[in-house]
Amino acid sequence: MSEILCQWLNQELKVSQTVSPKSFAKAFSSGYLIGEVLHKFALQDDFADFSESRISSAKLNNFSRLEPTLHLLGVQFDQNVAHNIITEKPGAAMKLLYQLYIALQRKKKGVQTGVEMPTVQPLMSTKVQNMKSEAFRDQRLSRRRQNEIMAKIQAAIIQIPKPTSNRTLKTLDAQKLMKKKKEAEDVANEIKKFEALIKKDLQAKESASKTSLDTAGQTTTDLLNTYSDDDYIKKIQKRLEEDAFAREQREKRRRRLLMDQLIAHEAQEEAYREEQLINRLMRQSQQERRIAVQLMHVRHEKEVLWQNRIFREKQYEERRLKDFQDALDREAALARQAKIDFEEQALRDKEIHEQIAIERAQARYEKHYSICAEILDQILDLSTKVADYRLLTNNLIPYKLMHDWKELFFHGKPIYEQASLRHLPTKLSAEHLIELEKRNLLDNNDYEEYKNMVGEWALPEEMVENLPPSNNCILGHVIHRLIESSLPPQVESTVPELPSFAIKGCLLGKTFSGKTTALKALEKSFPIQVLSIDTLVQEAIQAFHDKESVSGAHGLQKAPEEKALPVRQESGEENQACTSSPRDVQDGSLAEALPKKEDKTRLDTDARKAAKAEEVVASDSFSELTVRAQLGAKSEKLLKKGKSISDILLVSIMVNAINQIPMYKGWILDGFPMTLNQAKLLEEALTGYNRNLIELEGKKSRTSTLAVDPTASKEVPLPPSAFDFVMLLDISDNSSLNRMNDIMAEAFSSETPLEDINQRVAAKNKDTDEDQNLRDQIQHRIVGFLDNWPSLEQWFTEPENILIKINAEVDKQSLCQKVKEMFMTEIMKKENKVKKKLEEKEAERKEEVSLTEKTSPPPPPPPPPEPEKEKEVHLPQERSKTPAAKGKQASGSPRGKSLGGKIPLKKSPAESTDVSPVPVVPAPSKPGSEEWVYVNEPIPEEIPSFLVPYWKLIENSYINSIKTVLRQLREGQHAVLAYLYDIRTGFQQFLRRPDHKQDFVSQWQADFNSLPDDLWDDEETKAELHQRVNDLRDRLWDICDARKEEAEQERLDIINESWLQDSTGIAMNHFFSLMQAELNRFQDTKRLLQDYYRAMECKIPMDDTKRFTRVPLVQLDSKDILESQLRIPLVPRRSISPESALSKPKTKSILKGKIDYTLESVELNFEADEKMVMDTWQQSSLAISHMVAAEIHQRLMEEEKENQPAETKEKLPQVAANKKVKKEPPPPPPPPKKKKEDKKGKGKSPPMAEAAPVVVPAEETEEVEVKNELKLRIKEEHLAALQFEEIATQFRLELIKVKALAFLEELVIKAVDVYRLMEKWLGERYLNEMASVEKLTGVARYHIETSTKIQNELYLDQEDFFINGDIKVFPDPPPPVRPPPVEKEENGTLTIEQLDNLRDQFLDIAPKGIIGNKAFADLLLDLVTLNLGTNNFPSSWMNLTQPELQELASLLVTNSESVDWRKFLLVVALPWPIPLEEELLETLQRFKALDAEQLGTVTYEQYKQAGLWFTGDEDIKIPENPLEPLPFNRQEHLIEFFFRLFANCEKDPPQLDYTQMLLYFACHPDSTEGVYRALSVAIGTHVFQPIEMPHPVAEKTSSFTDMSPIEEYPELEDNFMSEERELQEDGEEKEEEIPENANTEMISMQTLLQVFRGGNEVLDANRFASHQKLENIYLENFIKVFQDLGSKNLEPIEVAVLLKHPFIQDLISSYPDYKIPDVKIILQRSEHVQGSDEERSPSRLTEEKK
């Protein structure tokens, strides 16, 4: 929808402002564009009154005028909509515009215009007045409320219903009156109609009666006349008369009745009218009274209003004063709030800046982390690569491989191969590009080593002494002259003779660092011009608006300058940065962030747009404008389109302003340049130099070439900088933000109050907008400066450090003072520099004058190079682009050098041309030395154009050939290492192949162990077994011998493979290719020199049709190929067989140590290869020597032909030349030697027929001598250059020969070492296998002699033999079974078995657990007798007498009749750990957690899972003797016994009532404590004893309270006494520590009966009631207790309340069932009675006990 609206507004309506979806809300927030839209549809006539401003009053005016029109169109518009649009709420403006769009399209179809809307204007004017301000609406609403209040007051005073308004009452009365009149008229009309009808009827009836009487009279007379009966006729007549009279009377009555009705009706109507009249009169009187009352009230109200008005005026005055004060207070509050908001905004800005700083730090960290991670990965790759090659090379990594890996690592390239380069695809991937870069890097390093003869190509000691010169100076000079001749002439830049003293600089820094302030102070103190890019752009745009024009000549002069700048900058291939405004450019730019591709596309698009803009603007008026105005027009056009000003345009504006400054006046740029691109463009515009191109040319000049001219300058001087100094005001980010906040706060506090509120609001809005823009831009500016400054700092410090950093975090005065001091220092430096330059120029002028004076006497001959120069200048062909610096250097060098080859190029041309090319005396210096003057005779134009590409082809082919061969050698080294490792590992795997010896050993062991036991000691059997062992040994030895023979054959197969021969052949071909490359370079160089010097002698170049010398390569395969089909000659490879090798004597041995005849063929093949290398080297060397000799011979022959037709037969120059030739050649003799196939020697020896002899014209003798001398010098220089090349090539060939021999020897030694290592492995393995068989034999013989079976497996694998203890051939005999543990009787304690027997007997007699006292005593007596109780009791119990047993029963009796046998068994099972109350409660909770259904019972598994308070995990020592039983774990068996004791066995599975069991375990030596423990168990929580309750003293009886194992009885008694005291102390502590909310748990009747089992305890000594009766008594007592405590329905009550009842207290103190009796004392006494008679009797003890 937004796109449709934008298209409608921008294209169809073409509104004044371009609208985009992003700026939609902002564009329509003022309402101006909405009015414009309506105005275009002729619906808004007052559009001229609309304001485009964004202040609130203008927006209110616009929307108030828009409201009626929008309402008329049916568009929904109210105050909320207007507010949302003004506040730029997202979607509000778009929704309104969409509704307006729909309405306008609909009206457009109906063709409605502004003519149909005249009625809208009054309404619109009223609405305009009503919507002017919100204050007027509030006043109107307040007035309405006051009127309503006054109306209510008035109605209350009158106390009668207020009549309606006069207009309404009159209309109602008139309507009623008209209605009544109409009704009256209707009634009157009906009456009239009725009367008329009645009259008509009466008249008709009268006429009818008369006619009837007449006819009757006639008939009667007729009848009378006819008949004569008079009586009858009289009767009839009488009757007729009576009928007529009656009829008349009836009619009269009827009429009377009607008249009466009419009169009554009229009377009724009259009465009704009178009543209506009376009511009307009465009503009017009430109205009059009401009016009178109202008049009185009105009069009263007038007085009140008058008083109220006076009072209101006073209130208004007070209100105005109060409002004024409130306004002041409100402004103060707003100011305070604004200050707070300002501070908060400052804090937010700092937080944002800190966040940005954190993000930048995080980005830097991630960048560094990625770099470190990449380096770490490369380190790991290098480490793994080294580890891999340690395995491949047996820890001997070659130096070359390690060096290559380090180079890749140092250059950040991956060590491992990313992609294969064997078959490159058409579209290279990133991995392929990386691999190509790696390959090029290693190729370049290898070539540099080869060229400089270092590293792998280092010279041997015997060749160091004969090292030739590293450079052929003559060839370098020739190449340099040819290249310079082929280049187009360069226009030298004009440098002013007198340098200016005016200082140039710029001041940079972050936003608010104080640049402008410092420059203003500097401008006041010094005569300089400060240039700010913001001001210059504004002035340029203003100049365009002002139509600033200039005279034609001046304008035409400046326009080309301005146009030339962009062209020069586009050729520099620089990045073009675009910024939103000049200040934004200063502080933040996106130029460096964009990739190069985007920059190029942007440059192209910008160039096209600029071209289009120039075509549109190009007109006569535009051309008449000044350069500044034209630049301002371009800038404004870009800004109007929403684009940024390009760097080129900004630099053009700045350069134009600099050009306007006088030469004597200095200038400083304020904050410019802001990016690296601007700095480059500005320097190029001011100095005319492009630093990048100069550096590029310097790199090109430093590239490796085969020949270098030492006289040419090697370094390109960098141009001077465009600035004399660059100052940086360094300031931190926080300081910049603080300064911004301080400036804004100062501006905020110093606001001047404006009289007009509109002006005040507008100014405030403008300030806020500026402040907001500043706040929004400050972060981007700081970030932009931080992004661009590192590159700028490097730009201003690298060639010449002109950067000055000043700490700007000081006050304004200190900063200005620092800047002034630094500026003064720079002025002094500039003055000293200019003075020094002037002195140098003066000295140079003096030297030139002195030189001209010295060289003036001998007049120089006319220099021939001058016309040659002109020819070179007008060469039609164009070379590649070269900068001005290179042109400068090239312009000085074609003339050659005078004395001293290292004189710089900046010498004047006069000095270089003064030397005459024809010296009078032959120069004593040798050609190529520093004193030699090169022959620079002119050459034809075509020669450089042909020889320069030819030399480049020579150079490129040579370098590429060398790199290719070195790459193949490098990659072949990897292949050699991999192959040697493969054959080593393969041979090791072959040696480890399975041998099947274990099968024979296993069969023998099985047969040996299967021998019957009765034959082990038989001597004959032993002898047979020994014989079997011997047979096994022989069979195993045969297997070892066969494996050895197979391994030796495998080794021979590996040695006899053709790999070594193929590898050496390939390596030899590579080295022969190097020789071929050197040979080709020499032949091509010879031809180039020949063509050059023949061209200088004005001879035609020779057409050499002979083929180049080819070095033969080794033929690796045995295929027969015709020589005509070969481009390169091949030499067949001759491999020497071992048989033929035996007959030949050894000349050189590389095999050290013991002679191995299998490797002799390897050595012989190496010798043959060595001989082939030597032969090939000799052939190449002789071919070069023959070529040089042939060239010299050809020179001599040409000289002889030239001198024959000459008239003068003087042969002095020729003899001198021959002598020179004899002296020059190197140590190898120049005359050619006779060989079988010497192609070059034979081809070069005859004279060249194609060479045209130079005919010397018959002229003067001096000219002839000069020409002869020149020819002699050319010949000397030519031959010297050729001999230099010969020496260098011969040396290179010898080096290649030495390195080839060393490489082949190293390869053969590596292979031989591997072959010997394989032999060593084979022998060691054979010996180890034989030794392992001997070990096996020894073990077998030992077992034979000892007559024992071999249980463990004998394992013989490869060379290892051992007895495998993990595998047994037959199983072990079963171990002895340990007897089960048995419990022993100790200290009279019953065993678990005895306890189980007693439980079974008691369970049979009394399953419920209660047994009679007498029956219990009799049962025990029967059990302790000798006949029955031998196994049921320990021996100490067997001595008990009947009284003692009765005493024992009395201790356990619950009443006079019964005993609880479970308690008896629990007591006699001691010792077991007596639990604490907390342990009991914890155990109870565990049982309840397992009892999910809350049944109160658990099974045996649940019982074991919950566990008791003790476990059976005791430290039991396992005896070492396996026949000895384990110790008996009594506690573990006790836990199981307790379950059997208390579980209900009748159920399946047995169920244990854990609460009942824990109540048994709640027993305690103190009966009271035991009761409280039982209560705690029954309730589930701890029950505290009341403080007032006396603590009963426990009886002094012994108890087993110790958790230790069974001890002696005196110790048990002492333990019980100590524990009793501890329990008493614990009880006292508990009493002291009872909390406030103790015993608040609820206890029920059932729980109480469960604790106090009724009938089980003795309550009174004389009570002999039955059991059932006793239970009823307890139940009744408990019911009574509950009722006494307030529980009528036996609800549960609190424990604390229950314990306070006296019955419960007595019951607790006297209840003995929870006391643990001590039965051991009876046993002790029994033992003591047997031993001594001094012991007391049991009866006495019983009495004491009672």
Structure commentary:
The protein has 1746 residues and is mainly alpha-helical. The chain is built from 55 helices and 18 strands. It has a five-stranded parallel beta sheet, with helices on both faces. Strands 14-16-15 form a three-stranded antiparallel beta sheet. It is flat. The C terminus is likely disordered.
Protein topology:
Blueprint: H1 2-13, H2 24-27, H3 32-40, H4 56-72, H5 79-86, H6 92-110, H7 120-130, H8 134-158, H9 166-226, H10 230-393, H11 399-410, H12 430-452, H13 461-464, H14 473-486, E1 504-509, H15 515-525, E2 528-532, H16 533-545, H17 552-571, E3 578-579, H18 582-587, H19 596-617, H20 620-623, H21 627-640, E4 645-646, H22 647-660, E5 666-670, H23 676-687, H24 691-702, E6 725-730, H25 733-749, H26 757-797, E7 803-807, H27 812-855, H28 865-873, H29 884-892, H30 909-913, H31 942-991, H32 997-1009, H33 1019-1055, H34 1059-1096, E8 1113-1115, E9 1130-1132, H35 1138-1143, H36 1160-1203, H37 1212-1223, H38 1239-1244, H39 1261-1346, E10 1352-1357, E11 1360-1368, H40 1392-1405, E12 1410-1412, H41 1413-1424, H42 1442-1452, E13 1458-1460, H43 1461-1468, H44 1477-1490, E14 1497-1498, H45 1500-1506, H46 1530-1542, E15 1543-1544, E16 1551-1553, H47 1554-1561, H48 1567-1579, H49 1609-1632, E17 1642-1643, H50 1645-1651, H51 1667-1684, E18 1693-1694, H52 1695-1699, H53 1702-1710, H54 1720-1731, H55 1738-1745
Helix pairs in contact: 3-4, 4-7, 9-10, 10-11, 10-25, 10-31, 12-31, 14-31, 15-27, 16-21, 16-22, 17-22, 21-22, 22-23, 25-26, 31-33, 31-34, 31-39, 32-33, 33-39, 34-36, 34-39, 36-39, 37-39, 40-43, 40-46, 41-42, 44-45, 47-48, 48-50
